[in-house]
Automatic annotation (TrEMBL):
The keyword Transit peptide does not apply. PANTHER family: CHITIN-BINDING TYPE-2 DOMAIN-CONTAINING PROTEIN-RELATED. PROSITE patterns: PROKAR_LIPOPROTEIN. This is Chitin-binding type-2 domain-containing protein. GO terms for molecular function: chitin binding. Keywords: Signal. It comes from the Eukaryota. Residues 1-20 form the signal peptide.
């Protein structure tokens, strides 16, 4: 019985891990909404973020000032004392490769 419970837990965890977004968060800037939102979290670097300036042009990587990290929910750089990890989300569109 314990083995069955353990296997079920592992399967649930594996499904969650597969469905989690693991990209860097760079939007393709292909929608008007992305231009209006303008800035997006860089999921691989908490000290930088992506900025959409032009429709259908890849977002530009921007850096926060020294000693600061980007908080997606605030759409702003904050001091490390205020910074909190947030769950990554997929962008509205992605960069064509």
């Amino acid at each position: 019985m314990k083995l069955q419970v353990t296997i079920c837990c592992l399967l649930v965890f594996a499904c969650c891990a597969v469905n989690a977004y693991s990209g860097n968060g760079q939007p393709g800037c292909k929608t008007q909404m992305e231009l209006e939102i303008s800035v997006f979290r860089n999921n691989w670097d908490a000290t930088s973020y992506w900025k959409c300036d032009e429709l259908n042009a890849p977002a530009t990587q921007m850096k926060c000032p020294d000693e600061m990290g980007f908080v997606d929910s605030l759409k702003n750089c904050v001091s490390w004392d205020e910074w909190e990890w947030e769950t990554p989300v997929a962008p509205l569109s992605e960069v064509d490769e």
